């Protein structure tokens, strides 16, 4: 039976953690060597998902959590990039290497690390492992999952209030259950807010991650352009690095984009498009990474399924763009929806 620990309600918030603008590629590590898996813990290590560091979204949010832990605990850290076309065996070797060197915890950023983590965690029982966006059984594994549908519902409320054409768009990176949660919440938020008057045009970029759905800005740009041609004047993307192309297309057409995972209005690499980033559906990956690191540092490592939702500020909606507050009824509608989700009067769909 899976052990489920009580969620540690550490104050989390992606928007409050400074993200470093860093180019993709290579390995960033500050380990200066390491142990062979003995008693000494070097500190937190994370292994990135497709797109790597510099995606201004999912992976960079995880890196922000690593930075916060490193600063607070004063220890060594490592963050490792994925390689193109890698296999589960490659991921397994990466996680095993980090554990063997003495890093603790070791976190796989993304559901793709599931099979590899299940295998490695058994081999290194003294190491705490974490996986983002997936549930892996294991006495020493913390599954860090999020109520993405809740943040997406709020994004749908915002889109319904902001649209002037009564058509909005959704671009998903890969056609998988995880991204279906984003779409389902978004559509429900749009429909509930507009009374069914606003149409949602949806498109997935690829069927598998290997085809580049999370790592191809050109694919995101083309999809957004197609939706804008269909009169969509607000486009929400849940597509990792590909989402940058969606934002670029929206800015070029002078329509609204809605970011994802991190507060993309604040991302330096997207500064030239920021005026057209209405809001972002926040998913506090950084807070989850930090929370697990803190639990290990405190000697009480979290295990089991840890769910980050609106109640613990694990997801949310950014309001950084001043234009957000200027749209009639938007702020009040979002606040009311958030209250309804938290008190249970609004049940958000996941598919």
The major sheet is characterized as:
7 strands, mixed
Q: What is the C-alpha radius of gyration, as a whole number of Å? A: 19 Å
Say how many strands there are.
13
Extract low-pLDDT stretches.
1-38
The overall pLDDT, averaged over residues, is: 89
Overall, the morphology is globular
From the N-terminal CA to the C-terminal CA, the straight-line distance is 26 Å
- Classification by helices and strands: alpha/beta
Proportion of beta-strand residues: 15-25%
- Number of helical runs? 9
Order of helices and strands: EEHEHEHEEHEHEHEHEEHEEH
In the sheet with the most strands, the strands line up as 1-3-2-4-5-6-12
Counting copies of identical and different chains, the oligomeric state is single chain
Residue share in helix:
25-40%
What is the element layout, followed by pairings?
Blueprint (H helix, E strand, L loop, with lengths): L27 E2 L13 E5 L10 H16 L4 E3 L7 H14 L1 E7 L4 H10 L5 E4 L8 E6 L1 H15 L4 E8 L2 H18 L4 E8 L10 H13 L4 E5 L4 H11 L2 E6 L15 E7 L1 H13 L6 E5 L6 E3 L12 H14 L8
Parallel strand pairs: 2-3, 2-4, 4-5, 5-6, 6-12, 7-8, 7-9, 9-10, 10-11
Antiparallel strand pairs: 1-3, 11-13
């Amino acid at each position: 039976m899976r052990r489920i620990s009580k969620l540690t309600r550490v104050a989390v918030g992606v928007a409050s953690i400074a993200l470093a603008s860093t180019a993709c590629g290579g390995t960033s590590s500050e380990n200066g060597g390491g142990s062979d898996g003995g008693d000494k813990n070097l500190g937190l290590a994370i292994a990135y998902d497709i797109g790597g560091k510099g995606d201004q979204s999912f992976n960079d949010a995880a890196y922000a959590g690593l930075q916060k832990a490193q600063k607070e605990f004063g220890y060594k850290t490592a963050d490792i990039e994925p390689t193109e076309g890698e296999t589960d065996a490659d991921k397994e070797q990466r996680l095993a290497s980090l554990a063997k060197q003495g890093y603790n915890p070791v976190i796989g950023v993304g559901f793709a690390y599931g099979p590899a983590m299940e295998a490695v965690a058994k081999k290194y029982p003294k190491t705490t492992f974490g996986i983002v966006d997936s549930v892996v059984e294991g006495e020493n594994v913390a599954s860090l999952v999020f109520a993405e549908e809740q943040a997406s519902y709020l994004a749908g409320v915002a889109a319904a209030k902001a649209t002037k054409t009564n058509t909005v768009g959704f671009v998903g990176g890969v056609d998988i259950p995880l991204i279906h949660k984003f779409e389902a919440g978004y559509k429900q938020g749009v429909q509930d807010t507009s009374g069914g008057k606003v149409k949602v045009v949806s498109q997935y970029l690829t069927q598998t991650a290997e085809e580049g759905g999370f790592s191809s800005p050109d694919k995101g740009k083309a999809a957004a352009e197609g939706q804008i041609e269909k009169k969509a004047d607000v486009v929400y993307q849940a597509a990792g690095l590909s989402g940058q192309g969606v934002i670029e297309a929206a800015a070029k057409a002078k329509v609204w984009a809605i970011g994802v995972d991190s507060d993309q209005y604040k991302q330096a690499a997207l500064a030239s498009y920021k005026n057209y980033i209405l809001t972002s559906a926040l998913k506090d990956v950084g807070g989850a990474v930090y929370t697990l690191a803190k639990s290990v540092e405190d000697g009480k490592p979290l295990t089991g399924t840890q769910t980050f939702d609106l109640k613990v500020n694990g997801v949310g909606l950014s309001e950084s763009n001043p234009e957000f507050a200027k749209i009639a009824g938007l702020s009040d509608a979002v606040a009311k929806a958030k209250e309804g989700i938290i008190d249970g009067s609004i049940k958000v769909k996941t598919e």
